[in-house]
Amino acid sequence: MLCQHDQSLALLQLKISLSMITVSSTSISLYPKTDSWKEGTDCCRWDGVVCDNKTGNVIGLDLSYNDFNNSQSQIPSQLDLSFNNFSDQASSSIENLHELSSLYLSNNNFNGEVPSLLGNLKKLTMLDLSHNNFSGQLSSSFENLQELSSLYLSTNNFNGQVPSLLGNLKKLTVLDLSHNNFNGQIPFSFENLQELSSLYLSTNNFSGQVPSLLGNLNKLTVLDLSSNNFNGQIPSSFENLQRLSSLYLSTNNFSGQISSSLENLTELSILDLSHNNFNALNPSSFENLKKVTSLYLSYNNFSGQIPSSLGSLTQLHMLDLSYNNFTGQIPSFLGNLTNLTALYLNYNNFIGQIPLSLGSLWQLSLFDISFNNLNGQIPSSLENLTQLYYLRMGNNNLSGQIPSSFFEDNQLNYIDLRNNKFQGPIPNSIFKSVNLTALLFSSNKLIGEVPSSICKLKALQIIDLSNNSLNGSIPQCLGNFTTSLSVLHLGMNNFHGTIPEAFSVGSSLRYLNFNGNQLQGTIPSSICNCKGLQFLDLGNNVLNDTFPDFLGTLPGLQVLVLQSNKLHGLVNDSSANYSFSMLRIFDLSKNMFTGPLPSEYFNDFKAMMNFDVKMKYMGEPNNAYDYSVTLTLKGLVIELVKIQTLLTTIDLSSNKFSGMIPQSLGELKSLKLLNLSHNKLTGNIQTSLGELSNLESLDLSWNLLVGRIPMELADLTFLQVFRVSYNRLQGSIPGGKQFNTFDGSSYEGNLGLCGFPLENCDNGERQQPTASPQEDDSESMFGFGWKQVLIGYGCGVIFGIAMGYIVFKTRKPAWFVKMVEGYQKPRRFKK
């Protein structure tokens, strides 16, 4: 039988709509089946079209990549256009396909309001409009779809309140409104949806208390109200949801004690109450939930001990109690939960030792007890956890040696033992964990050498052994044993020798920190092979080299710390290719650099000129590792365990830089800290420094600067630290704003300065003899230069001649003889 003429026209219109869609990523036609769709031919014979053999109505369309099974024994009645790139043109072509029972339009680019014409498809039982850009409110025509059993509207931009008309679709079994912008409360009309088995309302802006009417939908098996603004307590009517297997209430503002109504939900498999404000657990809350496999209670305010009823949930695979205030010891009954694959107890206040019984959790793959107050040693029973993949025990008070048997036979991928009191050497057995991607042993009391066998762990991405007492030389192979390594932190140890010479091409290193060792020699140029390097800290060693200008070829370098070494020579831009354009932290302090300040580099510090920087922290993707650095900030040595991208600093203090302060420093608008102290800088303080509107600390002390303090500096409203002491400045100190907060120590050693907080200026102000920039700066310990000495010498000569003349004329005047003889008598000292 020939297809219906009106439906043939509708399909041809649909073909035209599809042909308007261009795909630049492929030269292959996305819709080859439509090539057979030609006017004047039977549409029931077109590729991808299925008709009812009796009526000629189009009941199915398949425009996917796969061949359509056009079997006469199977007559589908659906149109699946999901995962295409359609816009609004295609939707109007569907209106005449009034026999459709299933319509899938997900993952396209539809926008605006849902066309009301969809209300004409009255035989629809399935409608999927998810993952589009539909917006506004739902059309009233939806009320015509009385046969609908499944309605998916998730991941769009719908807003406003949910229309009550949805409550009239009484055959609905699945309703998904998640990931939209719906607000207000759940409509009372939902009480009519007595056939609902799955209701998804997550990730919207619903508010208020959850209506008790949901407890009357007793066929529900899945209820997801997560990521909204619901508050109050869980309705007591939820005890009626006897078929419920999954309940998601996370990321709301629920508070108080967990409702006893949950005790009756004996079919529950997944219960997620995380990210709320619950503060109390009923001791019997979980006694009857024997089928629960996943329990999420993290990020609440629970306190006290873990209720013993948890020990009866023997089907548990996932237990997350992290980020609460649980106290006491970790209960040994957790060892009864032998089906556990993931156990999170981190960020609580547990004390005591790790219970031996946890060694019975032989299926455990994820285990996190970090950030508690646990002590003692790692129990030997944990060597039974051969499926362990992810282990975090950091930030406790655990001690003893790291047991070598722990690594003999497991699948470890990530191990974090940071910030404990472990001692002894790193066990060699750990180097058999060939799947290891992260090795975090920092801030312990580990000793011994790091063997070259560490380079057998080709999968390593993060190595942090910092702040221990490790010694010996750094294995040379660490520079090139793998291209996957992104973090290498060996700082604050006792390593000696040289930096590994060969960093391989294609290296993934982003963070390299050898600060605080005894490394000697030069900085290897092969570091430039690490094109993704963002952080380099070689400070506090005994490196003897010139400035490594080749590091300017690293396009993403943001932090460069070379402080406290024996680096020397000029710091200048020897090539136009070396720019340091992304640099935010530049610390060359406490070296022996000479010559003028590197104005060429200042001109290229583009990142320090940029105001529009979003506040985030430097680190590895997915928060796998936070970058840290130790800097001198505002006169204090501070370890920043996280580095804000907003932090921009230049510290060139305690070198031998000379010449004038470059005016180009005033272009670094986002600079927060500038320290040029303890150098030999001359000339005036540049007025352009007054343009550094974000500056919080400015230290120019202990130089040879002359002239006045520029009035423009008074405009630095964020300035908290200001030091110009021990220069040759004169004139009045700027008044007002931040300058009213600085005490006299900021200005001491400048005899020509006056005004608050020093003595008031007289009419002519104070004048101080100024030295030319070429003048020798050598002074005695009392602060006298050669001019002062010469003046004193001249006065002494004149005084001596006068006294000689008096003696000659008066023949030893008595007063003069007594004075001289008095000085010649030996003095007695008290014993």
TrEMBL record:
One protein family per Pfam: LRR_14
Domain Leucine-rich repeat-containing N-terminal plant-type residue range list: 6-52
Cellular compartments annotated: Cell membrane; Membrane
Keyword Ion transport: no
GO cellular component: plasma membrane
Gene Ontology MF annotations: transmembrane signaling receptor activity
Keyword field: Cell membrane, Glycoprotein, Leucine-rich repeat, Membrane, Receptor, Repeat, Signal, Transmembrane, Transmembrane helix
Major site of localization recorded for this protein: membrane
Gene Ontology terms describing biological process: immune response; post-embryonic development; toll-like receptor signaling pathway
Span of domain Disease resistance R13L4/SHOC-2-like LRR: 84-201
Transmembrane intervals: 790-808
Family named by the database record: Belongs to the RLP family.
Protein name as annotated: Uncharacterized protein
Organism expressing this protein natively: Manihot esculenta (Cassava)
Phylogenetic lineage: Eukaryota, Viridiplantae, Streptophyta, Embryophyta, Tracheophyta
